[in-house]
Amino acid sequence: MTIGAATSVRPRTRAGAQWWTLTGRGISSLVRNGEIIFAFVAPVLLAICFYVPLRSIMNADPGMDYADFLMPIISLQSVSFVASSAAMRSAVDATKGINTRFRTMPMPTLIPPLARMGTNTVLLVISVVCATVTSLVMGWRPNGGVFDTIGLFAVVLVVGILIAVLADAVGLLSNSPEATSQALSLPILILGMLSTGFVPENQFPEWIQPFVRNQPISQFATAMRSLSDGTATLDLLTPTIWWCVGLAVAGGVLTALGVRRVVR
Question: What is the pLDDT of residue 127?
Fold first, then answer.
């Protein structure tokens, strides 16, 4: 074999093995950075901050069970935590030269973002399980059928994956992990507080009720409550479906722009 022929031979690689290796790298970072610990702590803190002080006041309303009412927003706040982690992870890869290093390897372009998606999905599942256990301890119980309960968790997982994809793309397009975290934290905080996740719509001033009622967090919470108590209808679920379509389109477009920026 000539020297030229020897240098032209590259080791055979498999995209599946590369994806698995990078996903394992991401999961290891979840442990090292303490993100898994925060996934356990965040829903507990949320329950202490809202359920404990507001339970007696909210339960005074006829027909109100505040544990059932609060369950969707506790799960959705776990989704927001995963989104922030996803944005930070991709922004660090983009700004620390890790993506540039990947480009020098015989690796398909989509493997790094797909591996980050795998890592984000693992963190999402852990966060949703922790939020569910916290809700069960508070007193929440699914009152719908089996398919309603499956639909409830399907909504939170689909919303979580789509928001994580969107956040990952924002991180790819960002020049600063710190700025990315701040840029995502503010709208998540505003949408969470100005939603029907913590208090009913009629507790807000009348002038802001249309925004509170129609923004995505409120629509996701409404869909999850209807699936939880077994009253879901197509009309109740349709806004959530459309918001998910919008998130998928936005995530796809921004991911394409982010990948294009990486391969330049």
Answer: 92
